Amino acid sequence: MAHLLSKSVKQLVRKETLAAQVPEKQKSLLALKKEHGDHVIGNVTIDQCIGGARSVKCMVWETSNLDPEEGIRFRGLTIPECQAVLPTYSGVTGDGEPMLESILWLLLTSEVPTKEQVDSLTADLHARAELPEHVKTLVNSLPKDMHPMTQLIIGLNACQTESQFAKAYADGAPKTDYHIHALEDILKVVAVLPEIAAMIYRNVYFDGIVTKDTSLDYSGNFCRMLGYDDPSFDELMRLYLCIHTDHEGGNASAHATHLVGSTLSDPFLAYSGGLNALAGPLHGLANQEVLKWIQDLKNKFEAEGKPVNADTITEFAWETLNAKKVIPGYGHAVLRKTDPRYTCQREFALKHMPDDELFNVVDTIYSVMPDILKEHGKVANPYPNVDSHSGVLLWHYGFTQFQYYTVLFGVSRSVGALSQLYWDRALGLPLERPKSVTPEWLWSQVKK
Ligand SMILES: CC(=O)SCCNC(=O)CCNC(=O)[C@H](O)C(C)(C)COP(=O)(O)OP(=O)(O)OC[C@H]1O[C@@H](n2cnc3c(N)ncnc32)[C@H](O)[C@@H]1OP(=O)(O)O
Ligand SMILES: O=C([O-])CC(=O)C(=O)O
């Protein structure tokens, strides 16, 4: 087994923090199952069975929980609470956005880390970030017109040669040790994703050169590798990477990771499954679709000599809806209020770019879209989700290649989906295999 973990991470994450929690949590879950296993927590209707299992409670998720009204809580903390207590790059809590390493520590251990712990995690992630040569060769060989998400998935799959979990399994490791081997892979996946992502960005849009700066934190180094050198953009990346990490278990990317991982596929393969789900336009790809929608809107009205304002946005929204297409960035399978991830990005914009043209377009869309969607009458949630805002913030810094945006989401989501995968293995969660039914069986139930 590789022992790349730095001493402090080894002590704090594995030996003291995580290892101490595992037996307690195993005991508690076992007691739930043994003593209350037949306790009913919900019914399933035909509507839910046909309708994508909305609200069906059938998965345990340690790392976060989503309330339809309030939005996400990471280990019990709202986004503003995370911003108030998690270590920042400046070292002064509350001064700047939380570091990605802070939220990784929180999601994995459920504890708010110290700056020292976070710094040790930064060093650990940098230390294990080296990409195998075959991965570099492969990613550099991919066609520039292949979608960046497809490239990311290929790159991550190719890294599977490094899996300690797969090796340990093949060597006959006992199931009680799976989580230890999984953690090695989980930290490796989180560590390598930025460089794969940066290679794709630099290959597709620029000169292919990726320059690291490991004196910085995970997000800062990622920004340099992408080719950005602006402390304000670094802060945006910290915020971006933190808020996209986790959204409880039922979302498609987290669920896909959990499902694939439940077959004891290693974390590389499991998270590649998650990325495949994230690449769909109803999920993570919506962030590129939002920018495309705004550009189409601007192009149309500029060509007609009309301003982009509440009236023209309303006209364009109805055109989209009447063409039986969705308004990207609006609606949600669980949320019934404005996504707090939208709100914190709006606050970032108000602080850093209040006069930005596209931010003002997004703000105007927000002022009219909920009423349009209510009038349309189909949508359960007429309010904006996270994807509605992320693109315009990137655009402000010259990051205009919107076909790439979901890759950033993919780097971030690894942290939540894989922190949970650690617990999946630590708690010994079994193969996921729900029961499907035929339409005939459903009819037979109704006729009974
Ligand atoms: C990170 C994330 O994944 S956040 C979500 C990102 N996705 C988007 O922004 C894409 C636009 N939004 C949507 O397509 C949806 O709101 C989803 C996929 C997010 C949620 O889907 P659901 O839970 O099925 O939503 P809901 O129950 O409101 O759907 C009811 C109807 O309203 C439609 N609807 C939902 N949202 C929208 C929208 N933004 N624009 C137009 N129609 C919509 C649905 O397509 C559905 O129509 P149908 O009855 O003809 O099939
Ligand atoms: O929760 C969902 O279904 C989609 C979402 O917002 C996310 O995964 O971040």
UniProtKB/TrEMBL annotation:
InterPro entries: Citrate_synth-like_lrg_a-sub (IPR016142), Citrate_synth-like_sm_a-sub (IPR016143), Citrate_synthase (IPR002020), Citrate_synthase_AS (IPR019810), Citrate_synthase_euk (IPR010109), Citrate_synthase_sf (IPR036969). Keywords: Transferase. The active site is at H283, H332, D387. Transmembrane segments: none annotated. One of its GO terms (cellular component) is mitochondrial matrix. One of its GO terms (biological process) is tricarboxylic acid cycle. One of its GO terms (molecular function) is acyltransferase activity, acyl groups converted into alkyl on transfer. PANTHER family: CITRATE SYNTHASE (PTHR11739), CITRATE SYNTHASE, MITOCHONDRIAL (PTHR11739:SF8). NCBIfam families: cit_synth_euk, PRK09569.1. Belongs to the citrate synthase family. This is Citrate synthase. The lineage of its organism: Eukaryota, Sar, Stramenopiles, Ochrophyta, Bacillariophyta.
